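Entry type: protein chain
Record version: 2
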Amino acid sequence: MKKNKHIKIFLTIIITFFATLTIAAQEVAKIDTSYKAMVVAAHPEAVKVGVKIIKNGGNAVDAAIASAFMIGVVEPHASGLGGGGGMVIYLNNDKSFHYIDYYMQTSLHPDTNYVREDIYTPRSICIPGTPAGLLKAHKLFGKLPLHIVLQPAIDIARNGFEVSEKFYTNLLDKLDVITLYPETEKLLFKNDFPVGVGDTVLNLELANVLDKLVTDGADYFYNGEFAKKAAEEIQKAGGYLTKEDFKNYKPILKKPAKILYRDYEIFSAPPPQSGATMLEILNIFENITIDNISTKSWNSETVHLFCEASKRADADRYVYMGDPATTNIPLIGLLSQEYANKRFADIDLSKIKYENNQDIPAGNPNKYNEKIKSKLSKPDVDEGGHTTHISVVDREGNAVSLTQTIGMFFGSGFSSQGVIFNSAMSIFYKKPSPNHIAPSRRPLTTISPTIIMKDGELTSVIGTPGGGRIFNVLAQKIIELIDFKISPLNTILNPRFNVRIRSKYLSMENGFDAVMLEDLKKMGYQLKMYNKMNSYFGGVQLIYYDKKIKQFIGVSDPRRDGGALGIN
């Protein structure tokens, strides 16, 4: 059996080599406009179902939920019932904002001896949150009956979807993981080989699980037959989740993290998601008056400032950020402008200050933690990567920004009952920190779904997959829209860059000015270049309201599969 698998892998490596010669990201973004409503998502089928739901009388929450269930079927490598996520919800009738945290969570008795080598094993699995979170959002804010919202995903799981080039590339890249587990291999293989471009993939077991969610609700997944069988299979394969762990899971309703950035209100994911880190970057960057810089674009001056801001926010993230259910996080301080000014004062605007990024010290936000409350909504719990993103605006002006994931592409690789499970244990830190493994704890993740307002009016709904690049990419796109006044289309097509304190490199897509690159080297940066339109830098799904033409502009990033479709 092992020999046959090795042959399959060898043959597929050859296939992959020739496939990469012909499969490349196209510089053609999917774009549409609308006076009334818009759906933008990382897969065309998710866009279609979101539009259908709104046309049938559903609101933005219904559309986002339907799209999220659908994308979990057609993008099983990036999200699904075995993962988790978060969504920012804006309700126009009362101008209120809500955040639902449905990220994965450790068991009541987690494996504290987890090591990185366990990532593609059942020991990497945390309790999934997607079914609970999406059904909670529907119960609180949805409009249409649940069976109407879920039926499109049930139908496509039962009847199949067509394999795209990008799906095929991701499949081949993780073939060694998929072939570890017969149940997962069965989902994605045909005649002993991985499905190819144009093949149809169906998942009858998943269709049955989705059917049960309609009739029995989340209880079926967390306290019924699904949980019982999944826990048994996970333990048999060496994992540790129990049925009691599944029963223990609950999504959490919170307030989003918020800042005021150059007269724009920006709402994003609170801890343990990383919207707050993205907001801290913007707060530090705001110390530069854009009108006084040499060009309203990325040049050596603005890239350097952004990188130094990002590295300081990243240093703070490692020291202070974690699950607020188990850790006291000084979020008010981290997001205060006074603290951002202090972090900005540590930056040398002519060159990098610390040759080794890991030498950058974290700041002390605690003394700012009760200051400048007028600019912030404290993200308490309300009463009562490898990823994918969906942005929706409906005819009533409601909006949803939703990001969900299963961790690495194809998660842990392990599946049960048609559901591929996450690899979320790999996100925790080994060293003692707010993000250390502990019972019933949610890991610190980079997802940062975001909604932007100005003068009480919706201006943008934005988010992206991309692992450790997410909060940097989103902050760049927001700066391009607000500060540089770049069009939504060019914002999505523009090259991107990323820097983290645990990497010595400034990673950049090709397409930046050569003189600027030389200037950055002189400032002390070590550059690592990537092909233009590289999927490493995410797949932004953007809805932007253009006041001049009084229309929503939806743009889907060509770095991933996706689509944008307006509704008039």
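Comment: The first helix runs from residue 2 to 22.
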